[in-house]
Amino acid sequence: MSVIAPPLPRQIRNEQLVGDQRVSIQEISWQDYVAIGDILRDRPGLRLTYDDGKLEIMTLSPEHDRHGRWLGDFLVILAEECNVRIAPFGSMTFKREDLAKGFEPDDCYWIGHERQMRGKLTWDPAVDPPPDLIQEIEMSRSAISRMPLFAAFRVPEVWRFDGESLRAFVLQSDDSYLQVERSPTFPKIPLQEIVRFLEPDETKDYLTILREFRAWVREQLKQP
To answer: Which residue did the predictor score with more confidence, 10 or 217?
Structure first.
């Protein structure tokens, strides 16, 4: 039996989704959220966030994409140099009907639970743990506060980069997030110093920057 998804709401069809912009829509049912996600599945430049009837669709600017890609590559180098096993899954969709919530991070990683997710291509909330670390690029303000969503899914650690500062947050027992100076996953690395490697530099190619970042990480790991 075929299922015909409902038409996109008029707000979506009439908005020109270009640049780093957001469209917020109220009173969207869970079924319509899932259907809209299926319609937009093959458009990687979009992020959907859903919270109890409120849907936000965000388009990614080139700056957003660049920062996300670079920071993701840096995190892989960190894991390699720190001998930390990770399972990177990129911007996959997390949704739970029982919570009436769903989101798509810029990048997500299983670290402490890497072995449980090794070789998998999808996430099943009934049996799989939440990602151990989520990476968020925040070039514009969201109408839906995403940190409570991450807490509802029990994500232990969140990195947030706004173009100027890189901050790490750790989930607390009361479901709030505490900002910390250093990531518990990479405690010897001063996160804010990573920002200088994310800044545009016309004098260096990307592979040179990656090599310089790796050398810097090794220097940090030598510190007592």
So the answer is: 217
What is the rounded CA–CA span in Å between residue 184 and residue 120? 25
Q: Name the residue among 195, 199, 95 with its Cα closest to residue 153.
A: 95
Name the residue among 57, 4, 15 with its Cα closest to residue 33: 57
**209 bridge partner residues:** none
Phi-psi sector, 143: left (phi>0), alpha (psi -120 to 50), beta: alpha
Between vectors from CA 102 to CA 128 and to CA 38, what angle results, nearest 5°?
100
In the numeric block, the tokens 């998804």 are attached to 5
Phi, psi (degrees; rounded to nearest 5) at 178: -105, 125
The CA distance from 49 to 218, in Å, is 37
- Structure confidence by residue, pLDDT tens digits, 29-50: 999 999 999 988 877 788 899 9
Q: At the top level of CATH, which class does the domain 62-222 belong to?
A: alpha beta
In angstroms, rounded to a whole number, what is the distance separating the alpha carbons of residues 7 and 58? 19
